[in-house]
Design a protein that fits this description.
Helices cover 35% and strands 15% of the residues. By secondary structure, the chain is α/β, with parallel strands linked by helices. The protein has 2 domains: 29-265, Type I PLP-dependent aspartate aminotransferase-like (Major domain) (Aspartate Aminotransferase, domain 2, 3-Layer(aba) Sandwich), CATH 3.40.640.10; 269-387, Aspartate Aminotransferase, domain 1 (Alpha-Beta Complex), CATH 3.90.1150.10. It has a 7-stranded mixed sheet with strand order 1-9-8-7-4-2-3, with helices on both faces. Strands 12-13-14 form a 3-stranded antiparallel sheet.
Length: 395
């Protein structure tokens, strides 16, 4: 493999990190000029800003009218843990894991909540668990898109409409980029820092009528911290879903979220966002098809993520390295790309197999992805040539 010439074209925006993700095209600090700073978020205008985030999100996602949408603290992690601590324990649980964040929820359930009737259904990076094993007479917890593995469920056909348990879905890297079947999902969480390029801090919690009924009829046996409490006197705290956000939100982040939502509307709403993300995935897939030294981490093309696109090196030289050598080489490639200023933060997640992870959510321009691909070839070839030359030098 000879080192190709340094490419001439460069991505206009080199931000391909998987969170916080690229801001929408042409974003600047001027987008925050109308931020409601120095005022209470509980004032009328403050609550109106928060309620606008909720309603614009509801409309863009196409939620059923009877689903609640709330803004909660601590990003997607806070939203998921609020759901787990508040809802689980009424039934047995099936929890799915095929990457690090799903495994994190397993830790919460098994080691923190210590549920006695919890069945863990796992798969290695690159694959989905056997979805046919899932028992929906029980509650079920899963991620829609494995942010650190680039593996997603392709549809909701495996979730029955007449399920008895709740389907609890961490959709942080799927919301606004994938078509979620709302009638198959009872709890959905995501954060502002992913597909719409918002700032970290806040999470979104979406509840179906079945989830609300569970909250109002079941009290978990463990203590609930104040920021997790969604009911009072056995009734849902409706204010949480109308703009009376638990804990104090950053009104700068709220304004940024509104900017992202307005931009999303301007590019065709949810279909437009999905189309932008899928176009970037296709650009990478076409390149992978003609590039022998790299492949998708996702084993089944139907499960390839269109947001967190995870790639592995399959060059025989690379696969012949020991585990430490593979990790070091992959980091070297990512570091070189970062140093060149063409791709920031695209190394694989620390718990994932060594490789690259390219964010392709809707705020990323497909033209930038296309401009990046020759640089990937150049960087891998350059690192390979350097390490091979070093290995051949006499001791």
């Amino acid at each position: 493999m000879t080192t190709p010439p340094r490419p001439d074209a460069r991505p206009a925006n080199p931000c391909f990190a998987s969170g916080p993700c690229a801001k929408r095209p042409n974003w600047s600090l001027a987008a925050l000029n109308d931020a409601f700073v120095g005022r209470s978020h509980r004032s009328g205008p403050g609550k109106a800003k928060l309620a606008e985030v909720i309603e614009r999100s509801r409309t863009l996602l196409g939620l059923p009218d009877d689903y609640r949408v709330g803004i909660v603290p601590a990003s997607d992690t806070g939203a998921v843990e609020m759901a787990l601590w508040s809802l689980l324990g009424a039934r047995g649980l099936d929890i799915l894991a095929w990457e690090s964040f799903g495994l994190g929820w397993v830790t919460d359930v098994v080691k923190q909540l210590r549920l006695e009737d919890a069945r863990v259904i796992k798969a290695d990076y690159g694959a989905l668990p056997d979805l046919g094993q899932v028992d929906f007479s029980r509650d079920v917890v899963f991620v829609w898109n494995g942010t650190t593995s680039g593996v997603r469920v392709s549809n909701g056909d495996w979730i029955p409409a007449d399920r008895q348990g709740l389907a609890i879905c961490d959709a942080t890297s799927a919301a606004f980029a994938m078509d979620l079947p709302w009638d198959k999902l009872d709890v959905v969480t995501y954060s502002w820092q992913k597909v719409l390029g918002g700032e970290a801090q806040h999470g979104m919690l979406i509840l179906s009528p079945a989830a609300v009924a569970r909250l109002e009829s079941y009290t978990p046996p463990w203590p609930l911290p104040k920021i997790f409490r969604l009911t009072k006197g056995g009734k849902l705290i409706e204010g949480v879903f109308q703009g009376s956000t638990i804990n104090t939100p950053s009104m700068l982040a709220v304004e940024d979220a509104l900017d992202g939502l307005r931009w999303a509307e301007s590019v065709g709403g949810l279909p437009g966002l999905i189309g932008r993300s899928e176009a970037s995935l296709k650009a990478i897939a076409d390149w992978v098809d003609r590039t022998p030294w790299i492949d998708f981490l996702a084993e089944d093309p139907a499960t390839r993520s269109c947001t967190s696109v995870c790639l592995k090196f399959v060059d025989p030289w690379f696969t012949g390295l020991d585990a430490a050598g593979q990790v070091a080489t992959a980091k070297r490639v990512a570091t070189l790309l970062d140093k060149e200023g063409v791709a920031h933060d695209i190394g694989a997640y620390r718990d994932a197999p060594p490789g690259l992870r390219i964010w392709c959510g809707g705020t990323v321009e497909t033209a930038d992805v296309e401009a990046l691909l020759p640089w990937l070839e150049w960087a891998f070839a350059a690192v390979k040539a350097e390490l091979q030359a070093a290995a051949s030098e006499p001791v």
